[in-house]
Task: structure prediction
Amino acid sequence: MASRGKGSKRTYDIKRRDKSDTFTPLRSVTSKASDPPKKSHPFRNEVNLWLKDLDDTLKVASDNFTLGNYHVAAFYTHQAVEKALKAVIIALKHKAPPKTHRLRLLYSEVSAEVPLTAEQLRFLGELTPVARRARYVDVAPGLPSEIYTKEIVEQYMEKALPIIDAIKACIAAQGV
Result:
C-alpha cells in the first residue's frame, strides 16, 4: 500500500504475514516520489537477503571446518541448505516458507520445480537431525563435538553444495 505524506517520498508498508498466511516481504521500502517505479519481482529483495545470508552461513561452516569445530560446521551446513530451500520457496511459491528445520518437508514445497536425485533427497533426510544433534546433548548419543568428525562433515559439505547450487540455478532461472 502506498501512502504519500507532505514530503517527496513514497512509502510502502510491507508486512511479513497476514491472517491468510500469504507472503509479503518483511522489509519496508522507501523511494523518492520522482524515482520511476522499479520493475522487479515483488519478492526479489527478500530472496536476495536469504541468498546473501546463505553465503555467509556457508562461510561460517567452512571457517569452523578449518578450525576443527566439526559439530559447528555440520550445523551451519544444515542451515545453509535450509536457507537455500526457504529462498527458493519464496522465489517460486511467493509465500512464507514453513517454519521447520525438516529439509525434506521444505523440499516437498518445490520438488516439482527443483529436481534432485534420489541420493540428494536421501541426504536431506540424513542432514535434518544435525540441526538439533549438533547443538544439544540431550538429543545426541554423546557430545556433539565427539559425534561429528572431519570425515563426516566433509561428506556433508560435499553433498550439500550441489544441492545449494541447483537451488540457486533454479532461482536465477526465474529471474529473481
Summary: Residues 70 and 150 are 6 Å apart (CA to CA). The radius of gyration is 19 Å. The longest strand covers residues 9-12.
